[in-house]
Specification:
Layout lengths: L6 E13 L2 E4 L4 E4 L2 E2 L11 H10 L5 E6 L10 E7 L5 E2 H7 L4 E2 L9 H13 L12 E3 L3 H5 L5 E7 L2 E5 L2 E5 L9 E4 L1 H7 L10 E11 L1 E6 L5 E3 L6 E2 L2
Parallel strand pairs: 3-6, 9-10, 13-15
Antiparallel strand pairs: 1-2, 1-5, 2-3, 4-8, 5-6, 6-7, 10-14, 11-12, 12-13, 14-15, 14-16, 16-17
Helix pairs in contact: 2-3
Length: 244
C-alpha cells in the first residue's frame, strides 16, 4: 500500500481498458489513472509503450477494484482521476505496477500529486534495473546539452537533465539555462509553486545538475515549463532529491 494520503471513492469491477491509462468500471465510471504518463511513443523512439501498458491493464479485467482519490476527483471533461487498487492480499496498486514495470512515468499533476514521491521511487528502481521501456529507447533521461535531440521530442512528456549554466528572473518566472547556446539551447522555466521553491538565492543552483520533467515545448529552443516543485530535482548522487 502507498504511503500517500488517499480517500476511498467506492468499489466496482474493471469492465474495459480504453487506453494505456484509461479504464471503464462496471458502475459506468470512466477512470483516468492519476499521476502517471503512459502515452504512445513517437515512431523514431521504437517500441510500443501504449500497447504494453494497455496489455498489462487488461490482466485486471473483470476483477474487483477500489477507487481511491488523492486530489481533484474529476477533470474538466468529467472523467474520474483516481488511483486504482485491484482486490487482493495485498491489493495491487495499478499505477505503481505500471511504473515499476517500466511502462509508465511518474507525472505529478497540479490537482493530483499526493503519491508522486512513491511513484518516483518506483520509477527510479525501474530505470536502474532497465525494466520495460527503460531498457529501450522509449524511456530515457535526455541530456540538456543535446538540444537538437531533445527538440525532436516536443509535445511529449520527458525528463531532461543537465548542469545549470545560468539563472535569470523575470517577474515571477525563473529561467534556467543549460548551455552556451543562448538562442536554441534547452531551457527550463519555473513558475508558480516551482518558482517559489527556487526563490531566494537562485544563483546557488548554478553549477548543479538539475533534472526537469514535463511536457516539451519549443520556444526558439526546446523547453519545459515547471509549475510544480515536484517537477524539479537537484540531483544528488544517482537518483536526485526533489527540491524542498
Amino acid at each position: 500500500m502507498p504511503t500517500c494520503d488517499l480517500r476511498s471513492a467506492g468499489e466496482s469491477a474493471l469492465a474495459a481498458v480504453t487506453g494505456p491509462q484509461t479504464l471503464r468500471l462496471a458502475d459506468g465510471r470512466m477512470i483516468r489513472l492519476a499521476e502517471i504518463i503512459a502515452t504512445p511513443p513517437l515512431p523514431q523512439q521504437g517500441g510500443d509503450a501504449a500497447h504494453d501498458a494497455t496489455s498489462y491493464l487488461k490482466g485486471a479485467l473483470g476483477k474487483k477494484v477500489e477507487v481511491k482519490i488523492g486530489g481533484a476527483e474529476r477533470d474538466r471533461y468529467g472523467v474520474t482521476t483516481a488511483h486504482i487498487f485491484v482486490a487482493g492480499d495485498p491489493p495491487l496498486w495499478l499505477q505503481q505496477q505500471l511504473v515499476s514495470a517500466g511502462l509508465a512515468l511518474a507525472a505529478p499533476q497540479a490537482d493530483n500529486k499526493s503519491c508522486f514521491a512513491a511513484l518516483r521511487a518506483a520509477e527510479a528502481t525501474a530505470r536502474a534495473e532497465r525494466r520495460g521501456n527503460w531498457g529501450s529507447a522509449v524511456f530515457k533521461i535526455l541530456s540538456a546539452s543535446e538540444p537538437r535531440l531533445v527538440g525532436n521530442l516536443v509535445q511529449t512528456y520527458q525528463i531532461v537533465e543537465g548542469v545549470v549554466k545560468g539563472v535569470a528572473r523575470s517577474g515571477s518566472r525563473i529561467t534556467l539555462t543549460f548551455g552556451d547556446d543562448k538562442k536554441f539551447g534547452f531551457r527550463a522555466y519555473a513558475e508558480g509553486a516551482a518558482a517559489k521553491r527556487l526563490s531566494g538565492d537562485v544563483t546557488a543552483i548554478v553549477g548543479k545538475i538539475v533534472r526537469i520533467r514535463g511536457w516539451l515545448e519549443r520556444k526558439a529552443g526546446p523547453s519545459i515549463t515547471a509549475t510544480l516543485p515536484e517537477q524539479v530535482e537537484v540531483v544528488s548522487g544517482e537518483e536526485g532529491a526533489t527540491l524542498r
